[in-house]
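>> received
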Amino acid sequence: MSALEERVGLRIASMASPVRIAAARTAIVFDAACDLPAEYLNQPNVLVLPTAVKMGPHEYVDNHDAARTRAFLAELAKSGGADVETRSYSPEEMRALFLERLALDYDSIYCLTVSAKRSEIHANASRAAVDTLAAARQLREAAGITRPFLLRVIDTKSLFAGQGIAALELFDMVARGLPARDITPRLFEVADSTYGYFVPDDLHYLRTRASQRGDRSVGLVATVLGSMLDVKPVVRAHLGTTAPVAKIRGREEAFRRLFQFARQRVRSGLMTPHVNLSYGGDLADIRDIPAYMELVQECWNAEVTLHESTMSMTGCVNVGPRGLALAFASTAHAPEF
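>> returned
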């Protein structure tokens, strides 16, 4: 490791200030697709809505357990994306969680979901919220709690690392003690300004998954030619829509250009002081790329926190093993790679 890598490596560990515990009576809920470092997900006022992932005869529960995710990734790579199914909580199951785990201990609940255009989770959570409100008020009255009760379901309009951007802004606002009248509109603003970029590693895997969903956008010819030439697509997610914006030959070159692009956006100024990255593999693979260390340095200079985490099982099912996701909130821009 070079002197620069050693210096910047220390900054990876130190640049993320200790997570501030959110206000005592505010709960934050995410579905399992949201990628964030463990220190956020493990806070006592955070609830992760798990997703069941069935692969062949085995069933996994995606609740961001790091050891289970690593074991799942090894099996997923062998399967090639075939015979994998996911199931999210039903409205009834979500309602039960909200009532049993949150209604009496918290006055405000914010539930941030994966894009409504990509999953039924937002619709299920919205239905659960309606059913929860009346029941929660009755429970609270019976317990002698007279404080107002709030439950908001927010569509992040993104997925995986992109979901984490609105979540990180929410942590910041709650820690600052902002009232709900300021928090909710700001979350909508950040969701509309979040850009997520994804680099799948295996086109054959991507085509298999697309075929299972009935999506014909990943054609056989393009898959074969792309795999032969080692071409990696860069896919952008914004306002709930995903579309390829670049094709780059070579995995490391695709990662390098994405990191360089992110540096440019950081330098131009972000809407929130956060860049969020998740990877479907060992994070050491990413840290060995010089362009990533340069992005770390750029974030440090701009007082932007770079967050990194292992991609969730749900994310890996969709992007594939060794896939990369990176997101930030920014003004409109051209995806120049």
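>> The first helix runs from residue 3 to 15.
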